[in-house]
Amino acid sequence: MEALNSAPSPVTMHDPRSASPKAALVRELSSRDRARLHAHFLSLSDDDRLLRFGQRVSDPVIEHYVDGIDFSRDTVFGVCDDNLELVGVGHLAYLHDNGDKRTAEFGVSVLERARGRGIGTQLFERAAMRGRNTRVTTLYMHCLSRNSTMMHIARKAGMKIEYAYGEADAYLTLPPADSSSLMAERLQEQAAMFDYAMKRQARRASQLFDVFRAVPAGWVA
Q1: CB within 8 Å of 134: residues ≥ 6 apart
Q2: I need a surface site. Which of 114, 152, 174, 210 has the fewest CB within 10 A?
Q3: How many CB atoms lie within 10 A of CB 7?
Q4: What's the pLDDT score for residue 152?
Q5: Both ends of the chain: CA-CA distance in Å?
Q6: Does residue 65 sit in helix, strand or coil?
């Protein structure tokens, strides 16, 4: 897949308040983002939960899933909007090694209001690059065959897809890491961290402005 050999291009997100597009960058998440992950998955509709987890899951099940993510073992990526809410999440889970073969499973979810912007594809490309750089030889996806988003990602990446009983398994062989892939991932993470810091600063400034605007004219402490 050509995208694995270079830094993934930023996804274009169109801000309705501006005529110019905004780049949505993929940031690696940590345990500090667990609350945002809770909010993201709990906001998924019943049908979206079915497509993401392969079954309709309740809020307690989702909370247990998020609380059980081991960030020291797996890698979770996210795309935030200007309010720092996660609109897209990709989970790269490392499976047991089989000799020289190492497999990782990828799962993705994108909020309905953020779809059609390529966020799912960019999350996949970032996860594939991380897998490549951590000696993963096979990237694996399992989903319902009617999951059009996952199927689109799999076909676009040239994955081998196997269908059975309404479900699909997709496999992608990853090339070994090299200096180019390692540098590309490092640059992408730096850009994503800078983007996140700028959004956080803008949000704090907006909140501070709202506080001052709420103070009555002529009020003195």
Answers
A1: 94, 102, 104, 177
A2: 210
A3: 18
A4: 92
A5: 63
A6: helix
94 burial via Cβ count (<10 Å: 0-12, 13-18, 19+): middle
Per-residue pLDDT of 158-188, as tens digits, reads: 999 999 999 999 999 999 999 999 999 999 9
Q: Bridge partners of 164?
A: 167
pLDDT tens-digit series, residues 58-107: 999 999 999 999 999 999 999 999 889 999 999 999 997 777 789 999 99
Is 117 within 8 Å of 12 (Cβ atoms)? yes
The sign of the torsion formed by the CA atoms of 206, 212, 215, 216 equals negative
- As given in the structure block, the two tokens for residue 62 are 């989702």
Q: Is 161 exposed, middle or buried (0-12, 13-18, 19+ CB in 10 A)?
A: middle
pTM tops 0.90: no
Query: CA torsion 117→149→33→211, rounded to 10°?
Result: 40
Strand order in the sheet with 103-110: 27-28, 75-80, 86-94, 103-110, 138-144, 167-173, 160-164
Residue 213 has pLDDT above 80, yes or no: no
- Where b means 16+ CB within 10 Å and e means fewer, 133-158 reads beebbbbbbebbeebebbbebbeebe
Q: Which two tokens stand for residue 99?
A: 């000799």
